[in-house]
Amino acid sequence: MRETDLIPKLTKPAQIEPDSGIVNVAMYGFGRPGIIAFWAGEGNLPTPGAFYRPVGESLAKGETFYTWQRGIPELREALAAYHTRHFGRNFSSENFCVTGGGMQAIQIAIQMLAADGDEVIIPTPAWPNYAGPLRMQGTVPVEVPMLFRDHRWSLDLDRLFAAAGPKTKAIVINSPSNPIGWCGTREDLIAIRDFARAKGIWIIGDEVYSRFYFGKDGAKRAPSFLDICDTEEQLVLCNTFSKNWAMTGWRQGWIQVPKALAPVAERLIQYNTSGSPVFLQRGCAAALEHGDAFVDQQVATARKNRDIVAETLRPLNRIHFQMPDGAFYFFFAIEGMKDSLTTARRIVDEANVGFAPGAAFGAAGEGFLRMCYLKDEDKLLEGLERFKNWLANHDPN
Amino acid sequence: MRETDLIPKLTKPAQIEPDSGIVNVAMYGFGRPGIIAFWAGEGNLPTPGAFYRPVGESLAKGETFYTWQRGIPELREALAAYHTRHFGRNFSSENFCVTGGGMQAIQIAIQMLAADGDEVIIPTPAWPNYAGPLRMQGTVPVEVPMLFRDHRWSLDLDRLFAAAGPKTKAIVINSPSNPIGWCGTREDLIAIRDFARAKGIWIIGDEVYSRFYFGKDGAKRAPSFLDICDTEEQLVLCNTFSKNWAMTGWRQGWIQVPKALAPVAERLIQYNTSGSPVFLQRGCAAALEHGDAFVDQQVATARKNRDIVAETLRPLNRIHFQMPDGAFYFFFAIEGMKDSLTTARRIVDEANVGFAPGAAFGAAGEGFLRMCYLKDEDKLLEGLERFKNWLANHDPN
What we know:
The structure is a homodimer.
Chain A lengths: L2 H4 L5 H5 L4 H9 L6 E2 L11 H12 L12 H15 L8 E4 L1 H13 L5 E6 L6 H6 L3 E6 L1 E3 L2 E3 L2 H6 L5 E7 L11 H14 L2 E5 L18 H4 L6 E6 L12 E4 L5 H9 L7 H13 L1 H22 L5 E3 L7 E6 L5 H12 L1 E2 L1 E2 L10 E5 L4 H17 L4
Parallel strand pairs in A: 1-13, 3-4, 3-7, 7-8, 8-9
Antiparallel strand pairs in A: 2-10, 5-6, 9-10, 11-12, 12-15, 14-15
């Protein structure tokens, strides 16, 4: 049978779902000699030995059988202890399920909370992997564009709330945000919580970059829904080991839910990956228990690199950005750039540097490029130098 | 908020999907001192060192970053080579995507092929994890009960085909089958292929137990759709590293699709686990490349154990079963048993032996219990002895 005959025989969303623009550029540039890639959301360091050595030990002990589908008790206890340590109150392991990455946590959240025809609100620019899996299950992602004015992104709460209609089941709040580094204030989060309570809808919180926070209040982490919500309300938090502990390739994360939802999440995990390998969970537990100093060091690197990038980009003509308050991305506009995907591919060809196209993050992101700056300093400087030269000699269109 | 207030705020399928009966008994009996558990579908051996040592080597080399979401080229090439070796013709790596277990392969297959309101046909008794994820996405699993007569299960093809209506998108064929050990003949598979072609519907093939085959034809593996289908037709095969290579806890598998579907499967993988860890894929490649002798030894153990179980059960009053032609389960009826879940839990309490309840495998499975027999011989004999004594002294109801 010919390819063209097979695709129409798939479900409608499977036929039409486009590739992520990030993946598009990454696949375009992947493997080019000497390319400096800022497109992916990961740092420069491999996983430290202290986190991966327990994997080998566990394998050698024969921990290679089926296990608890919501995660081994030791890791769920370690998650509770980690949150108790960093969020200033007591957490119970009963609110945590281990997932196959933060992405799987998001998929499970939306499978629980929104069905075919329902709506989920997403402020944009936003990571495209919220809208993608929603579309694939027939749920409608409703974008609420944030405003970029005077070098500052802002979320208009009235506009956010006005987007909620009778079919709305949840609001996705990513703070600190990928790609723009926006961080909701405590007051923002309270207003969103109160609105969600009044409407009886869910908050899907993504606070993956919580520790990567450079707010002027000097705090060690960003404001969190955990500061202001009960554990037993309509809040589901999706998280990952990827960013804090240099474990992007491990594909391990967790979902934090009201106790009543834990068996539901567990059933969805069963019908998906049926749980995480015990031996990987041993490594994850080590990261939670012994990883605080490593995270502090990563955050310090991120802060230093952020300042380097800002100092390089600020004097450039045609470049506009908000100084990010968190996460590890710059999201910068090139004045007059019309098609960020085309330009991002051209910059791969013409400068051997890789950025993610802003349009991948929703309509509000067109005209921008995203750069992950948690990189080795020499690569960072060299990549910025190449981009500066490119910008001086090329029209973005 | 109280638990009872939260559950009605979930999607309908998430509210009503029951626990698997297998998990129910396993959780009931898990951790009891001295229990001999035959409920799970896994063997007695941990993963051999030859398969897990590459994991530690890869971690030490720093292979801990994001990678190809459809799997690293080396593993996809190893899958092609493995199939070329065992299925007697050439296979291309372009037809394979690596998944987070065979279960995730099934989830991705059904997300591609059937939507809300569509129907998928499943001969039963069948592993409950086909119907579960279908229900969770609003697709209707249509059971076609197989017939147990004269100690033999048979699949009535006319009845199978009669179940296909205008909403039917796919037929699931699991051969060798879990739980009954049924194996489709080449003629069965041809008839199903021809029917699917004529109707333009998909075959979802689960040939996970292909190598565990005890057919009278002396072949080293069961008849396969790969013997009789083109790679570019409406066939999706879901598979796993779990059973052949003692890697149940690894949660690694693969999906074999027409080339046109590989980018679609990759997108669904992206929105789920976003790929498998490179370091686990190194271990999976080692299993494919160096694991043939291990599989042969496992199959020999399974065959020997099968005969032991048959010789023990055959003389017993009230016990009926088909001698399995493949896989590593006995599915046996206890005459007069009305509720297999209740009885399975009673046998945990009264004999300290664990079986999976037949009702978990569909209506056609009520009255039966499933036993995984790929166990250490001393445990197998002790467990059978306990069951014999229980049967002699208890009524099943």
